[in-house]
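Hey, can you fold this one?
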Amino acid sequence: MNINDDLFGINDDCDVQVQYVGEGKHKVVTADHFYRHPEKILTYALELPYTNRFEIIGNFPGVRAAANRDTQPLIHIISKLWDAPLHSAFNPQPIVFSGITNKSYRLNIGQRQPHIDQDITAMIWLNPQESCAGGTGLFRHKPTNLERLPRIPDQEIRALANRLELSDEFLKNEEGYENFQNSMIFNPLFACRENRYINDGNEYWELLHLIEMKPNRLMIFDGRCFHSQYIQPIHYTNKFRINQILYLSQD
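Sure. Predicted structure:
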């Protein structure tokens, strides 16, 4: 497998594994030894200018940098690993790197519990072995037994709303569905009370699966599944946890 950029060349013999998580059998694909030159990519990434501006990072608990490179060959290879056609959630989609540090950082309520992304999420960890710890956790929401939120209310969501005796107004439009999510799923009372990531869960969130962080590991999963960074307070106080991130769509 090759990409038309020597820096981002991909190994032909990636160690690919596919797992199915939770009652919903949500697919998780990992590919170890993904890039041919991960050290060069890390050096390149660290030389870019990073920002924590909200319009760039949203509720991400760190900083991000972007570079205008063609990501289509990379998305094509990720599609093959996912075994379904994928395309960029943004047009165009640059190369994006994300960095997290625990040094003097205050997490808000939304960052202290799981979240969801738009559709399919692909991420490559770039830290060397000595600074790899934790990973990404996939979670079940205990009060509702949900493991995933669809983009529009499906039969399971409507049945849940019916059991909770909620008005149909919650599910009639995008704003109502968002209010349903914020009150029933991402309620601030469900977040970790300490200034840390949810990690192993709490009385409201059950950790279903930890995708372990490894150097040069690609992971692909359904971003509509509840997930969060798995980072202990003692980690990344002096160094960044850095990765490359792609937000993709299967439609």
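DSSP finds five helices and eleven strands in the chain. Let me know if you want another pass with a different chain boundary.
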